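Design review, sub-item: ligand-bound model
Attendees: FS, YL, KQ
YL presented the inputs for the protoporphyrin IX containing FE complex:
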Amino acid sequence: MFKLVEDPCYYCLCFYAVLVLGALLCLASQLWKMLKQLNDEEESRGVEIPPGSLGFPFIGETVQFMAAINSGKGFYEFVRVRSLRYGNCFKTNIFGETHVFVSRTESAKAILNNELGKFTKRYIKSIAELVGNQSLLCASYHQHKLLRGRLVHLFSTNSISLLVKQFDQLILNNLNCWEDGATVIVLDQALKITFKAMCKMLLSLESGQELEDLQEDVGHVCKAMLAFPLRFPGTQFYKGLQARKRIMSTLEKIIRRRREGLDSKNEDFLQHLLAEDENSCSDGLMYRLSDAEIQDNILTMIIAGQDTTASAITWMVKYLGENQKVLDQLKAEQLQLAEKTSKKLFLTLDDLNEMPYASKVVKESLRMASVVPWFPRLVLQDCEIEGYKIKKGWNVNIDVKSIHLDPMVYSEPNNFNPSRFDDESKPYSFLAFGMGSRTCLGMNMAKAMMLVFLHRFLTTYK
Ligand code: HEM
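KQ shared the predicted structure:
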């Protein structure tokens, strides 16, 4: 009934396939030899290239990088292992590009201070596709300057004061719910609260289907940022791209409603951007943000602010749980403040200034956790770092986590000791929020949210 596959064409096809595969392998190995030879020649001329392995031809060490992401130890594990093996400066190849990791404060200073000359910020293409080409995170030098100039006004003292009140309200509502649950997963709760805080601050979204859908879609985009960039239906990356499309269309709808006056006037970032936009049109002098820029940057701020702040809060709870002495000292400070503020419904920005020890707890938590473990930059000119030649077109990453845990920079770096910040830190030793022209825009907001959380957490719970 069945015909055996004896068709000569079938054998021909197999033969050609094997032949093509063989030729490709030959080509790859020749190319690899040539590259290696070039590398060896440079080294023999006395120009040292950082140590480290470039892995297999074409794929480099991408497989090992993805394995670290999926291992449960987190993507920093990939860097940690290599930094132990090769030292302060090493190279690798991920997604077809050469990456160098550096971990000295002097290198951090040179790179973060020299944005225009030799380095510029760049995320890999797949991340840029997810957050959007108009995002502040991906903008090149000139575009970044214009965008940042417009966005920085949003992070005023007034905005922070408003956020303190709104965040306090959110925390109080959520802590009430915690009482019913036997086990609380801090990260999940923190993610919910910080997402709501971001959406309220940016878009005045507080509840409803639009907010729930947005939360789910932002979750897909965040997962896709760490996934292998395969754009086939069913892959994590594809889901992220689809989610981005839905987010953009929701933001488009919200902007349209605002312009048509269908939404009530809100005191949020979007309203400021739309108002600034109208003003800029009338005087014609300021840089006008396009709708695409507004949308990409609203998404950027949700992503930049939610996960980071939630992780920082979670790490802080963990460190406090492990350090009874610190917890006792902190609690004493917070109970004293609670007495002073007992007549007020919500905390104010001034109250946060009455928390000197809590501020050090926040700083120490950020140092130990290094929520953003490295900062990527693209090399624009051949240069030398840590005595090694770094080539134009390579990526150089400041390994902040290594700096934060370097015993030459911080004594007993693995001890959670907020009082280490009684003295001023060495320059470029505390980089939780970056430094220079790309410093975190939401730095003061993140610190404020962490302080409000600490206060309510410690004065409400045993
Ligand atoms: C604990 C929480 C946070 C941490 C640890 C953190 C960390 C950072 C770091 C390290 C950078 C600079 C990376 C680099 O130089 O490559 C950055 C940039 C940025 N962050 Fe944050 N961040 C936090 C919270 C926030 C919040 C709450 C917002 C907004 C509401 C925000 C918005 C941004 C933006 C827009 C940038 C890009 C700045 C630019 O490129 O000019 N971040 N953040």
